[in-house]
Amino acid sequence: MDFNEIIESIRTFKGVTRKRSIADIREKLKDTYNISGNVHLAFGDDAAAIDIGNDMLMLLATDGIWGSLMDINPWWSGYCSVLVNVNDIAAMGGIPMGMTNVLSSSNPEITEQIMDGINEGVKKFGVPMVGGHTHPDTPYEALDVAISGIVGKEDVLPSCGAKKDDDVIVAIDLDGSVYPGTEINWDTTSDKSPKYVQNQIKVMNTIAKKHIVNSCKDISNPGIVGTLGMLLEASNMGANINMEEIPRPEGMDWISWFKMYPGSAFVLTAPHENTDELIKLLDNQHINANTIGTVTDNHELTMSYENTTKTVFDFNSEIIMGFSEDR
Questions:
Q1: How far is it, in rounded angstroms, from Cα 200 to Cα 143?
Q2: Among 19, 35, 229, 290, which residue has the fewest nearby CB atoms (within 10 Å)?
Q3: What average pLDDT is seen over the chain?
Q4: How buried is 306 (Cβ within 10 angstroms: 0-12 exposed, 13-18 middle, 19+ buried)?
Q5: Residues 186, 133, 42, CA angle at the centre, nearest 5°?
Q6: Which CATH number fits the domain 3-18+157-314, given the four candidates 1.10.1200.10, 1.20.120.80, 3.30.930.10, 3.90.650.10?
């Protein structure tokens, strides 16, 4: 497969380009987002973090399910609404506490499928769905879920903490398959036990408490490289990575893999001396982890393949979300 084609597919992927709108929303709220004075982390991270005293932070996140996924499989949309939110809290090193939802549908059958999927997700991940709001008369189907969590103030794993010369680690559960009817959902949880799935969430809190990681982000809609790009942009950094070091399922082509939304996956940066311990902790929970490169301060994300190096994103002149993180 042509390396230029791979690079271009990452740069033009909808999961990446749709993030540009975040900058406009942030601009509107820049003067009020910390009106309380207690906001520890805000735009640019997987969850906002609010200082609630006693050296603890409350984590808040929200995710909406793509309409195209809802059209394909309402049950899977409900299930994924739990998965993606729990992963947001895990990426911060936190413990997920509870969720609420906004459900829009005038079709009782689709509503039932969505709620059945949510119920299965709640059972799998062990995080309750405690309430929300319904729109029972809309001409469309939509699902949005919010989650809260907690984490120690000194333990939180931000997106904006990458430091020069950190190792870049990609960690993905490879024991899965593309979910039927989808093209970009790498399912590693629906056929696993609740214990297996919940241990993969809990290990991120263990890692956070050990203070061995400088930054972390869960791999989501932008894919592996796009998510790394967002982390680097939040940190006002760059990186050099080697494509061939990225964990990948056997038989999966690179373009498809870089668009995949994995069920359990994170990109992290850590001081080199901590990397072996980090990888061992992740591997012990069936999350295949590998060092793929190094953080730089040149504000470019470059990727190498077969002795050729290409620039994927140049943050000196272009954006994914368009800002370094508010902290």
A1: 25
A2: 35
A3: 96
A4: exposed
A5: 60
A6: 3.90.650.10
